[in-house]
Design goal:
single chain; Rossmann fold; 2 domains; seven-stranded parallel beta sheet; alpha/beta; 9 helices; about 260 residues
Length: about 260
């Protein structure tokens, strides 16, 4: 299927690896020009080189990279200094650490909210009016399945991302944006084979005293698909939400979790 977005410009955050890279690669393969952002210059440069070397990328699709902390005003200024207008924005920031809520002080909460709620809002604010004026816009926020099914040790993430979810539910449905072919959706990953998942499981190892193999087996048993997801398939889901065909999907929270969420709604 031709997704109808070749030649568009996309900003993809946290794109040096994992789910962010999967999204950047899927968009690049559709002929989208991508600006990838992450804090670490070496890993980000490697990611850009992988995208440029990808045989599935049309040769005229550009790949730019900006090493910056997107959660800071300075980092966002660097990104918009590289390019002012974007047709597609994929927001993504590293999740806050797991732990016991009794151990988190105000600073920990502010940091989580800043990265996983306020930063996406700032990126939305900076781009949606331009998208509306041009008659096309796609914003996909990478959040977490924990928004629908909270995980006790991820309280910082549960709280901050739920705040973003509530904000998006309102702004995505404003007529000025929805009628201008600008959509805003949240993509909720479950257990994907990423460094983040490995870190969370390592935390469970320390907490329970079990081995990594035991923790991994227990996690797999909660997933009907009985496997972890891959960044490539997550990227494909993201690319579809960014496509011309997804113009009637907005304000939604779309789970990609192998069937792990047990609810009806």
């Amino acid at each position: 299927m031709d997704l109808g977005i070749a030649g568009k410009w996309a900003l993809v955050c946290g794109a040096s690896k994992g789910l962010g890279f999967g999204c950047a690669q899927a968009l690049s393969r559709e002929g989208v020009n991508v600006v990838i952002v992450a804090r670490g210059e070496p890993a980000l440069k490697d990611a850009a080189q992988k995208l440029l070397a990808d045989p599935g990328r049309p040769k005229d699709a550009q790949v730019l990279h900006v090493a910056a902390d997107i959660t800071t005003a300075e980092g966002r200024a660097a990104v918009f200094g590289a390019r002012k207008d974007y047709d597609i924005v994929v927001t993504n920031a590293g999740g806050p650490p797991p732990g016991d809520f009794r151990d988190w002080d105000r600073e920990a909460w502010i940091k989580a909210v800043d990265a996983n709620m306020l930063t996406p809002i700032e990126l939305i604010k900076a781009t949606v009016d331009g998208m509306a004026a041009r008659g096309f816009g796609r914003i996909v926020n990478i959040t977490s399945s924990a928004v629908k099914s909270p995980i006790d040790i991820l309280g910082l993430s549960n709280g901050a991302r739920s705040g973003l979810t509530g904000f998006v539910a309102g702004v995505a449905r404003t007529r000025k944006l929805a009628s201008a072919n600008v959509t805003i959706n949240n993509l909720l990953p479950g257990a994907f084979d990423t460094d983040r998942l490995r870190g969370t499981m390592q935390g469970a190892v320390k907490k329970t005293g079990q081995t990594m193999d035991q923790v991994e087996a227990a996690r797999l048993n909660t997933i009907p698909a009985h496997r972890f997801g891959t960044p490539a398939e997550f990227g494909a889901a993201c690319a579809f939400l960014c496509s011309a065909h997804a113009s009637y999907i907005t304000g939604q929270n779309i789970l990609t979790d192998g069937g792990a969420y047990p609810g009806t709604y």
